């Protein structure tokens, strides 16, 4: 029986949700196992596990090699992308990021299970656009962030690479400014969150480095 196989050609053909599913089973216990190989093809090629059993083992290996090459590609920051015909834009000016946005970003950007929530901080629906300039909707918290699971993986990894290579001194200056300007207005919950996480830029960068394949840094 012939099995039609969809094989993604680039990161933009893989969703964040697919990658999150794969990471859950990509453990040391499953490393180099045929189970991991099958699940890799099942998830990224959108096949049923029972159909994979009908595909030649050598071809499954070729697909896995192809997918691994895709993950080694270093993506650039993608300012604008679409989900369900809605345009989402990256925060136009990081200097304007609020403390609330940073706290939510710091709580979620270092965890693949939560990174769709971080993406909802970084990318929001565009409400006005003229040429390359645009305005995005105000941040209203992590509610509705599930839609970001459908974000293309190149958008996600591109934002991570961007933050990793961002001048740490610039970001630290921004955070120090936020801390001074908004310290007196913090809620008890926000103060507790800051104490727990340390709002540490070095820790933030380390988490990003751990999450990304070393080949694309």
How are the elements arranged and paired?
Layout: H1 16-25, H2 34-44, H3 49-52, H4 57-71, E1 80-83, E2 86-90, H5 99-108, H6 115-122, E3 123-130, E4 133-136, H7 153-165, H8 168-182, H9 188-197, H10 201-211
Antiparallel strand pairs: 1-2, 2-3, 3-4
Rg on CA atoms, Å: 19 Å
Number of alpha- plus pi-helical segments? 10
User: Strand order within the widest sheet?
Assistant: 1-2-3-4
Percentage of residues in strands: 5-15%
Largest sheet: 4 strands, antiparallel
- The best one-word shape is elongated
The low-confidence runs, each spanning 5 or more residues with pLDDT under 50, are: 198-202
Distance between the termini: 42 Å
* N-to-C series of helices and strands: HHHHEEHHEEHHHH
Q: Give helix % range.
A: 40-55%
Mean pLDDT, nearest integer?
80
Query: What structural class do you assign from the helix and strand content?
Result: alpha+beta
> What is the number of strand segments?
4
Folded structure, characterized:
It is a single chain. Mean pLDDT is 80; it is low at 198-202. The protein is 49% helix and 10% strand. It has a 4-stranded antiparallel beta sheet. It has 217 residues and is an alpha+beta fold. The protein has 10 helices and 4 strands, in the order ααααββααββαααα. A hairpin with a 2-residue loop joins strand 1 and strand 2.
